[in-house]
Amino acid sequence: MAAIAEKIPEELEQIGDAVEAFCRAEVIARHQTNHALLNDPRNTYREDGRFVDDVIAQIKAVRMASAKAGFYNVSVPEDLGGAGFGMLAYYTLLERIYRVCGAHNWLCDFVVSHWAFGPSPVLSQVTERAKSEILNGMIAGETIMCFGMSEPGAGSDAAMLKTRAVKSGEGWKISGRKIWTTHIPIADYCIVFAITDPDRAAKKAGGISTFLVPTSAAGVTVESIIRMHGHIGGNEGITVLEDVDVEPWQLVGELHEGFRIGLFGVSMGRIYNSARAVGLARWALEMAIDYASQREAFGNPIAAYQGVSFPLADSATEIHAAHLMGLNVAQLLDNGERAIKELSMTKSYSVQAAVRAVDRAIQTHGAMGFTNELGLHDAYARVRQANVADGTNEILSRTIAQRLFKGDTEL
Ligand SMILES: Cc1cc2nc3c(=O)[nH]c(=O)nc-3n(C[C@H](O)[C@H](O)[C@H](O)COP(=O)(O)OP(=O)(O)OC[C@H]3O[C@@H](n4cnc5c(N)ncnc54)[C@H](O)[C@@H]3O)c2cc1C
User: Which atom of ligand 1 is nearest to the CA of 395?
Assistant: First the structure.
């Protein structure tokens, strides 16, 4: 039980217990039964780096089972077909999922919908026609989407994107290139960011719009899969868009104001990454404590040596701080505050604390720490990449500093 003064509401604790049971039955058991398929990259990926069909089917099965059990859409607004719980529920469930599953039971990524692949408040901004065409499948976990903002020349400074949506009849034709798009190889739809008013975009005063594009649309090609972390395949891709026709019903939010959708989504991504970081850090710390209590060297369990136990004490301290920050910012968001500074602080601190905690857990395990079976190396890759995705640590520091110098000095 976490040492926190203001307890998490009983209802959320109960949902947490239920999601833990779900993870054991639907995620961990699947990884045990299908170990060779899911945890041996030689079987997980095709020659071209994509997931094999059986892996895609396992991912879909977890999404759909979770949707049926009521976890997948836990923080999706009720009018979209979700349970309508807020960010505190989202945070606590995700933290629990990663604490239980670790990094190597990676199907857990699909237990709770993330705005960049499943239903989220972002879908409130799609048109009624889009809702009628996509909502049922998305809510059921049957179909998924992805989020195409970054481009080869536009990362942190996303407004530098070059993809254009040029007026054509009632609609537009989109052309450009997207990179790092997570889930594009398996997604049914992509939310594509494109310039619709070059003058405004050049002045960084709007001019970017967001469109819901089926990945099966003519002109959409996943050019290649990006291999990362030494893996032989991956789930991030580079996509080329060539004169892709879109109609007004595919617009997400207001014309020229698509950047707001990005900022809104990225905020949810920051809560997600904060929770995942704390969950994985706790999982790694618990493994390190167990191992240090059992492993003997020089006549004692290695936990007897302060060189081993003090770094773990540091991890515990940092995880506790990150967890409190996460619970606090989730509640601020639920209270209707934007909490820009606090969310930036929480994401940045949590992912950095997690890198340190997983690194210390690897060190505690000696050579064992590098084995595939323990998953610590996977966890390290994941928390390390979260120091870049959804706002790099430096961009978050920049945001915090901007807020401070605008007078937002309340801490
Ligand atoms: C695992 C993963 C998944 C991703 N998934 C998606 C996705 O689904 N969809 C999508 O659109 N994108 C996705 N991204 C891309 C992600 O949004 C970008 O990586 C991120 O915005 C950073 O951009 P960049 O990688 O181009 O780095 P750059 O912006 O080129 O930055 C390079 C370095 O310069 C630093 N830097 C830049 N500007 C400043 C500044 N003003 N002050 C100080 N330092 C600065 C950065 O912090 C960084 O250290 C993903 C990235 C990763 C790692």
Answer: 47
